[in-house]
Amino acid sequence: MHALLQLGQTLFAAANSGPVEGASFLGLAVYFGLLLAILAGLMAYAKRGFGVQVFKNPITVLFEHLYLFIENMCVGSIGPNGRKYIPYIMTLWMVIFLSNVMALFFPEAPTADLNFNLGLAVMTILYVQIEGIRTNGFFGHLKHFAGPKLGIWMIPISGMIFCIEIISELMKNLSLSLRLYGNIHGGHMAVESMNALGTSIYIPIGAFLMPLKVLTCVVQALIFTLLTCVYLSLVTHHDVEDHAEAASSVAHAH
C-alpha cells in the first residue's frame, strides 16, 4: 500500500500542471491509462481460468459473480430484453468501481474529476436516447416525452409535460456526474482535512475513514449503473410489453 501511495504521489506531481486544483488533462489521461491497464490485467488473468467447468481462479470467480450480479440487475430493472445491455452496464460498473478504488490510494482518480464524470453521464444519456429511438422510432420516442394521451383539448398540458421532460432528461447528466464527483472528491477532501487535524499528534486520522470510503466505492458504482438500467427501462418498456403481448397471443393460438 505504501508503494502505491508513493506511485500515486509521483504520478500526480509529474502529470499535474499549473495551480488549478485537481489533475490536468494530461494527469487525467495518465490516471485513465493506468485504470485501463489494471482492468486489462485483471481480465487477462481471469481468462486463464475459463478452461474448466468449475472455476478455481479467484479472479475468474469474482468476474463470474460480477456478471451474475449485473445480469440480475439488468433483467430485474429492464425486463427479459435487459440481457443485451449487460456489456455496457458491466463496462460502466468496472470503470467506475476501479476508478473509485484508485481514489483510495492515489491523490486523484478519473471519477474524482468532474469532466470525466460528465463525459460518462453524457455518453450514458445519449445511449439511452439511441435505444429509445431504436425501440420506439424517432417520433415514438419524442411522443414518450409528452406523457399519456390527454385529448385534443389538453394539448397545452401535453406541451408543458414535454418541456418538463426534456429539461429533466438534460438534468440527468448533472445528476449522474455531480453525485459521483461529490462523493469521490469529497472523500479526498474529508481525509485531507482530518489528516490536518491529526498533524500535531502525528496520527493520520483520515485513515479511519477508509471503511466508509470502500463502501462508497461500491455504492456509487451501483447507483450509477442502476440508474442507467432504470433510464433504459423507461424508454424500452413498450418493447417489453409488445413481446409479452405477442407471446400471449401465440399461447392463446396454441
Structure, described:
This protein is mostly helical and 254 residues long. The chain has one domain (2-253). Helix content is 77%, strand content 0%. The chain has helices at 2-15, 25-47, 58-78, 86-105, 114-136, 138-144, 155-197, 210-253. Helix 3 (58-78) crosses helix 8 and helix 5 packs parallel to helix 8. The longest helix has 44 residues, at 210-253.
List the helices and strands and how they pair.
Layout: H1 2-15, H2 25-47, H3 58-78, H4 86-105, H5 114-136, H6 138-144, H7 155-197, H8 210-253
Helix pairs in contact: 1-2, 2-3, 2-4, 3-8, 4-8, 5-6, 5-7, 5-8, 7-8
Mean pLDDT, nearest integer? 80
Beta strand %: under 5%
From the spread of the alpha carbons, the general shape counts as globular
Please provide the count of β strands. Answer: 0
N-end to C-end Cα span:
64 Å
Quaternary structure type: single chain
| Rounded radius of gyration (Å) | 22 Å
Structural class: mainly alpha
Question: How much helicity do the residues have?
Answer: over 70%
- Tally the helices: 8
Taking pLDDT < 50 over at least 5 consecutive residues as the criterion, the unreliable ranges are 1-21, 239-254
Report the major sheet: none
Q: Give helix and strand order, one letter per element, not per position.
A: HHHHHHHH
How many structural domains in the coordinates? 1
Spell out the key features of this protein:
77% helix, mainly alpha, 254 residues, disordered C terminus, disordered N terminus
